[in-house]
Amino acid sequence: MKRKQKRAIKQAFGIFIVLCSIFVAISIASIKHHDTNFHIDRSLISEQVVAYEPLVDKYAEKYGVIDYTDVLLAMMMQESGGRGKDPMQSSESYCGKIGCIDDPELSIKQGVYYFSKTIDAAEGDVELAVQSYNFGRGFIDYVKDEKGSYSQEAAIAFSKKMYKDASDKSNYTCLREEAKQYHACYGDIYYVRDVMKYKESLEE
Q1: 66, 98, 125, 166: which is deepest, by most CB within 10 A?
Q2: What is the rounded CA–CA span in Å between residue 174 and residue 181?
Q3: Is the pLDDT higher at 40 or at 57?
Q4: Residue 116, CA distances (Å) to 42, 50, 72, 126 in order
Q5: Which of 58, 62, 135 is nearest to 104 (CA)?
Q6: Residue 52: which of 11, 127, 111 has the closest Cα?
Q7: Is 174:185 a contact under the CB 8 Å cutoff?
Q8: What is the pLDDT at residue 169?
């Protein structure tokens, strides 16, 4: 009887070990699968942008926009792909002209700081804040006065107005063929669309 009990205990223990081994194997495979998907999901984001993530996190924490890290990385991707000495293209908001920043960390610090101001002025409207990073904070006032909230139509209308009112139109170039039909050559009227595409890549 005792021998049968011992045999039964050994068998039960053996089954337990096998089940534990299977569970561990499945868990490891799941983790590896998750990691693989994570990299695939971020495939639209360049390695240069990903490398700047710690700095973006650092200044997002400092300026109270840590919940928008994915947005900031997506904006960097749209601005420069993480290339150059001014990856956030934030010189204009820093000194009023292009090219005055030649240090990536300063670029990120200024870019995150400026976004923190736009998201605050936009009262949490992410699309309005993102487009204002490209257009300038005057777009927020325009939207609130004229349109109420962000829309693609509002972006086109603002760009047309700014281009029409510009004293020297040679300062502006229609970077996109689609913008020419609207004479909307101030800034990038499809900035939000493309930033959000990169943001979705980071989230999936």
Answers
A1: 125
A2: 10
A3: 57
A4: 24, 20, 10, 11
A5: 58
A6: 111
A7: yes
A8: 74
